[in-house]
Design goal:
Largest sheet of chain A: 5 strands, mixed
Largest sheet of chain B: 7 strands, mixed
Shape of chain A: globular
Strand content of chain B: 15-25%
Radius of gyration of chain B: 27 Å
Order of helices and strands of chain A: EEHEEEHHHH
Helix content of chain A: 25-40%
Number of strands of chain B: 30
Number of helices of chain B: 19
CATH superfamily of the largest domain in chain B: Aldehyde oxidase/xanthine dehydrogenase, molybdopterin binding domain
CATH class of the largest domain in chain A: Alpha Beta
Strand order of the largest sheet of chain A: 2-1-5-3-4
CATH architecture of the largest domain in chain A: Roll
CATH topology of the largest domain in chain A: Ubiquitin-like (UB roll)
Structural class of chain B: alpha+beta
Radius of gyration of chain A: 18 Å
Number of domains of chain A: 2
Distance between the termini of chain B: 9 Å
Number of domains of chain B: 3
Strand content of chain A: 15-25%
CATH superfamily of the largest domain in chain A: Beta-grasp domain
Number of helices of chain A: 5
Oligomer: heterodimer
Strand order of the largest sheet of chain B: 3-5-1-12-9-10-11
CATH architecture of the largest domain in chain B: 2-Layer Sandwich
CATH topology of the largest domain in chain B: Aldehyde Oxidoreductase, domain 4
């Protein structure tokens, strides 16, 4: 005889319909209100380009842009992001054309394992949007919250500088 | 290789997978979702050392949403990366040996339910006294104090002893003898991607495991053993890795459990470890205490060296057998040493197992040796670089412990950093608080022997030519970000004279790709590169013959270049690569070929001589310039110069990237990173915030210089770049600190508190334990088999 089981979900929070504006599109998604934006993006919207490294706000891997500002998506609830413009790595490309930062990172070997790359690209984009010609020290400062264990940061800094020197931004 | 005019090799090309990583399209293990997938968690021991009296899982199983619960009884077969020390269980059977040791696993409809179910599992532990240090392990010789029961001496995993050349005579001939002690603290890989694995059983009786592993072949073997299934029914796919550095090279509990739970539940099962779990999984740098004694002539010439290492291995063997050897074997590769004695011991302690981290077992002894030489030079009143330059090993030479050195760019590496850093102007001449330090090192380009004894190739490559001109490479190698997929493509594009964009690559899938042993020991470029060139050679023979007949040109006058097969003498006589492939397929049938690579045989034949030999050694040198604030003890690195003899830069962009990454990782080890534990066995800093690692702000400018020595064993002359450049940086930091403020810190990490203690005269010399090592295995240079050198 199969025993009736205790509900494992227990006091599971009811789902809510979120209206999120991500990468220029408005999407509706029914999800638990206690989910982080990182979880909503990855699990409910299929935007797995945003990575997770600690889910405690320590590594910068999950960085997305909210209204142009870099934000750790593991520290924001999905519900808090309603009404804002969210940009993830999937939205960096403009039609078929890679963003200059994407091209520079690929060309200069700034992405090794690539796991921290989406977060770093978005942080760098936010910097260049605000400040198109930063000095190396300013780039260092802007990226100080994004850990990379592969590159020693050198090629990352060079790639951001290359874009800053270019005419496309 | 005689070819010198390259169209692809040596060019700073984009990696084949680079854009996918910049667009978010690369799918790492945790990005995979499968229909009906469930999520699993491990129950981990809260005790560092305990016997399991009983486990009760009924309450967890009755929770709604729970699909399966397993314990040690479900997976009792032991495994481990080294065949002679298989001492791990997927889930603890009788004992737990460190905090975080897995005890049970739950698969449920969500991670949250799985976590709740873990809390319902009741484990009755008999708590045992933990052993948490090298000294405690060596003192715990009673049978009742054992962590493992299989090893001969209680809590000694492995003890080794070797004597090469006439050691006693060497010390007798020495005019001065110096002794030092050192400690290299443990640290961990901290790959940005946490370990993740997905198991799926079926369709049919076939099992598939996707995992962020560096060694799919060894995992394949281990899974077959633990699950009791033939390898032919198991498929292991290594997913794109979000960083490895050695931390994803062991077969792991969560991989076995993902497979077993998939079989039990009939659903795909995913484990995605948390950051805290990754700290407890570890397999990182061993904490090592070291004692070194060296006899020299007054002019600094080395006469004899005696080196002892004591490795804190943690709770399991992992790669420990190799690790202990590596703390001794490569000490002989940089400087001529006529006599050398090495004794090493790895002990078990109740902490997460240590294993291979970038440089595997060699950064610790290199740290000791290079500081020791710096001290000797000072006592002799010599420039420490001059002391080394007197006695560098030669190309095409054999070390006192029987290691064959082929190409050797150490001298050029020294000259380059000395010139660029303006060493002569700065050494001992910078103002107080500023300093400069030097160190050199050597590393292997792949281990000469596989992990398990066999006579098969270390690397296999299969190439298929499509009648449309498409080329697909199949190889078991796993790209962990270093660019091993790209290396395959570059070699094929070079050989066939085609654009790298025309070449597809399929790797790290045991169903599809020939075995390559994996991304460890800096072996991949040399071994897969050679296997690729061999496979291409077989196909080129067919293609050139075909083209020769069609063009009426002798095959040896044809070259493959710019997407064409054409005559060297009459370049207008040409056919396209695609036409050539079509003609060849019409004549010979479906086109494909395999290539494989096995390293040269060992030169020496003594027991234990298997660790250390390699197809080719790389050499690295580093100069570090830093500032130290003597009020706060804080160190700021101004600049690092690094020169690396990589044989040939297959792609200079990638070689520089590996070199810069190595320098960065070394700095973290030198200044801040430590994997340390409380008295109750808990990790002191199991989070990225507390486990300090360098950010953009702490990482200085790094100037990389590549030295190309064109090694005869390497593909196009290439050697490794992924690990060697880490080695000289750590001791160079310590030597630079001494130049800056006149105090020696003989351990890492060199933190401000240690600097201040040293400045106040309160820094204590590192103590090393006493231990009775086994009688040495003696070997005289020249004994053993003679092996021909490739030219």
């Amino acid at each position: 005889m199969k025993k009736s089981k205790k509900n494992g979900a227990g006091d599971r929070l009811t789902k809510r319909l979120l209206r999120l504006r991500v990468n220029g599109e408005t999407k509706e998604v029914a999800t638990e209100v206690n989910k982080t934006l990182l979880e909503v993006l990855r699990e409910d919207m299929g935007l797995t380009g945003t990575k997770h490294g600690c889910e405690l706000g320590e590594c910068g891997t999950c960085t997305v842009l909210i209204d142009g500002e870099p934000v750790l998506s593991c520290l924001v609830l999905g519900v808090e992001a309603e009404g804002s413009e969210i940009l993830t790595v999937e939205g960096l490309k403009e039609r078929d054309k890679p963003h200059p930062l994407q091209k520079a990172f690929a060309d200069l070997g700034a992405a090794q394992c690539g796991y921290c790359t989406p977060g770093i690209l978005l942080t760098a984009k936010s910097l260049l949007d605000r400040h198109p010609h930063p000095k190396r020290e300013e780039i260092r400062e802007a990226l100080a919250g994004n850990l990379c264990r592969c590159t020693g940061y050198t090629k990352i800094l060079e790639a951001v500088e290359l874009v800053a020197k270019g005419e496309e931004i | 290789m005689s070819k010198t005019n390259f169209s692809v090799i040596g060019k700073p090309l984009r990696k084949v997978d680079a854009m996918g990583k910049c667009t978010g399209e690369t799918r790492y293990a945790n990005d995979f979702e499968l229909p009906r997938m469930c999520y699993a968690k491990l129950l981990r021991s809260p005790h560092p050392h305990a016997r399991i009296r009983s486990i009760s899982t009924e309450r967890a199983l009755s929770l709604e949403g729970v699909y399966g619960v397993i314990t040690g009884a479900d997976l009792p077969v032991k495994f481990g990366i080294m065949p002679s020390t298989e001492d791990e269980e997927a889930l603890a059977v009788e004992k737990v040996r460190h905090v975080g040791d897995p005890v049970a696993a739950v698969a449920a409809s969500t991670e949250a339910i799985a976590e709740r179910a873990l809390q319902l599992i009741e484990v009755d532990y008999e708590v045992l006294k933990p052993i948490l240090s090298i000294e405690e392990a060596l003192a715990a010789t009673e049978e009742s104090e054992r962590i493992h029961s299989w090893n001969r001496r209680a809590n000694i995993q492995k003890a080794v002893s070797f004597e090469f050349g006439e050691v006693e005579q060497g010390f007798n001939q020495a005019e001065l003898v110096f002794e030092d002690t050192f400690f290299y603290q443990g640290n961990t890989h901290l790959a940005m991607e946490q370990h993740c694995a997905i198991g799926q059983y079926g369709p049919g009786d076939k099992l598939t495991l996707w995992s962020s592993t560096q060694t799919p072949h060894y995992l394949h073997k281990a899974m077959s053993k633990v699950l009791g299934m033939p390898m032919s029914r198991i498929r292991v796919v290594a997913t794109p890795s979000g960083g490895g550095f050695g931390g994803k090279s062991d077969p792991f509990s969560h991989e076995m459990c993902a497979a077993k739970l998939a079989m039990i539940t009939g659903r795909p099962v995913k484990f995605n470890l948390t950051r805290e779990e990754a700290f407890y999984l570890h397999r990182g740098r061993h904490p090592v205490k070291m004692w070194i004694k060296t006899g020299v002539k007054k002019d600094g010439t080395l006469q004899a060296m005696h080196f002892r290492s004591f490795l804190d291995g943690g709770g399991y063997s992992s790669y420990g057998l190799a690790s202990v050897h590596y703390t001794g074997t490569l000490q002989t590769v940089t400087y001529k040493l006529p006599a050398y004695k090495f004794e090493g011991v790895r002990v078990f302690t109740n902490k997460p197992a240590c294993g291979p981290k970038r440089g595997h077992g060699t950064p610790q002894p290199r740290f000791a040796l290079e500081i020791h030489l710096d001290k000797i030079a000072e006592k002799l009143g010599m420039d420490p670089i001059d002391l080394r330059l007197k006695q560098l090993t030669d190309p095409n030479s054999i070390t006192v412990n029987g290691l064959r050195i082929s190409s050797n760019g150490l001298r050029e590496c020294i000259e380059k950093v000395v010139a660029r850093a303006e060493w002569k102007k700065k050494f001992r001449q910078l103002p107080l608080g500023r300093g400069i330090g030097f160190a050199a090192s050597a590393y292997i380009s792949g281990a000469g022997l596989p992990i398990y004894w066999n006579k098969m190739p270390h690397s296999g490559v299969q190439i298929r030519l499509d009648r449309g001109g498409g080329i697909t490479i199949f190889c078991g190698s796993s790209d962990i970000g270093q660019g091993s997929d790209s290396i395959l493509v570059y070699a094929v594009a070079e050989e066939f004279g085609v654009n790298p964009a025309e070449v597809r690559v399929v790797t790290a899938d045991t169903d599809l790709t020939p075995v390559d042993l994996g991304s460890y020991s800096s072996r991949v470029t040399v071994m897969t590169g050679n296997a690729t060139i061999q496979a291409c050679g077989k196909l080129k023979k067919i293609l050139l013959e075909t083209a020769g007949e069609a063009l009426e040109i002798p095959a040896d006058d044809l070259e493959m270049i710019d997407g064409q097969v054409r005559s060297r003498s009459y370049p207008k006589k040409a056919m396209s690569f695609v036409e050539c492939v079509e003609s060849a397929e019409a004549k010979h049938g479906t086109l494909g070929a395999t290539g494989s690579y096995t390293p040269p045989k060992n030169l020496a034949n003594y027991k234990g001589s298997g660790v250390g030999p390699t197809p080719a050694y790389t050499f690295s040198t580093s100069i570090v310039e830093l500032q130290c604030d003597s009020d706060t003890g804080e160190i700021k690195i101004d600049k690092i110069w690094i020169a690396h003899d990589c044989g040939r830069a297959f792609n200079p962009l990638l070689v520089e990237g590996q070199t810069e990454g190595s320098v960065y990782m070394a700095l973290g080890e030198a200044l801040m990173e430590e994997q340390v534990f409380r008295k109750n066995g808990l990790h002191k800093f199991p989070s990225i915030l507390e486990y300090k690692s360098p950010t953009t702000l702490e990482t200085p400018e790094i100037e990389t210089m590549l030295v190309e020595t064109n090694d005869p064993e390497g593909p196009y002359g290439a050697k490794e770049a992924g690990q060697g450049p880490l080695l000289p940086v750590v001791p160079a930091v310590a030597n630079a600190l001494y130049d800056a403020i006149g105090v020696r810190i003989d351990e890492i990490p060199i933190t401000p508190d240690k600097v201040l203690r040293a400045l106040e005269g309160r820094y204590k010399k590192i103590s090393v334990p006493s231990f009775e090592f086994p009688p040495p295995i003696k070997w005289q240079p020249g004994e053993g088999v003679k092996v021909e050198q490739k030219s």
